[in-house]
Amino acid sequence: MNQKEHSLDSDTECILKFLTRHPYHFISEVDISRNADGERRFASEPNWAHPALSRLLALNLVETDASSKYRIRLTKLVSEEVLARKFISPETKILLRQTGVKIYPEWPGEEVG
């Protein structure tokens, strides 16, 4: 299944945005329910995130660990997006590329060297 083939509802988009802010951490369903859409929503519907997380798992957009905590699936696109936010000076970038370290582009369209 491809993400582009399926439209995501507001709950799944809210969870994806929350998990994107913490790409390397597995987060419990309760913490996702509490923090992704606010305390007020959690107080009225403590399990609101469960159906959305099930859908995201079915779409392979999130992954779980052994203790049933969730994180966004680290695809190449997400990894590049997270790494692109870190500033690397042009001089450092040249040195890293000369030593064979793979540098991700900072802006769309910039070639990877």
Can you describe this structure?
The protein is mainly alpha-helical and 113 residues long. It contains six helices and two strands; from the N terminus they run ααααββαα. It has helices at residues 10-20, 29-35, 39-44, 49-58, 76-84, 90-98, and strands at 62-64, 70-72. Strands 1-2 form a two-stranded antiparallel ribbon. A hairpin with a 5-residue loop joins strand 1 and strand 2. The longest helix is centred in the first third of the chain and has 11 residues, at 10-20. Mean pLDDT is 79; it is low at 1-5 and 106-110.
Judging by the overall fold, what is the CATH architecture of the largest domain?
Orthogonal Bundle
Shape label: elongated
pLDDT < 50 stretches:
1-5, 106-110
Total count of domains: 2
Q: How large, in whole angstroms, is the Cα Rg?
A: 17 Å
Largest sheet: 2 strands, antiparallel
Assign the structural class, choosing from mainly alpha, mainly beta, alpha/beta, alpha+beta, or little secondary structure: mainly alpha
Q: Portion of residues in helices?
A: 40-55%
H and E string: HHHHEEHH
Task: Give the CATH level 1 class of the largest domain.
Answer: Mainly Alpha
Question: What is the arithmetic mean of pLDDT?
Answer: 79
Number of strands: 2
Task: Provide the descriptors you would attach to this structure in a database record.
2 domains, disordered N terminus, mainly alpha, 113 residues, 6 helices, Arc Repressor Mutant, subunit A, single chain
Offer a quick outline of the entry.
By secondary structure, the chain is mainly alpha-helical. The protein has six helices and two strands; from the N terminus they run ααααββαα.
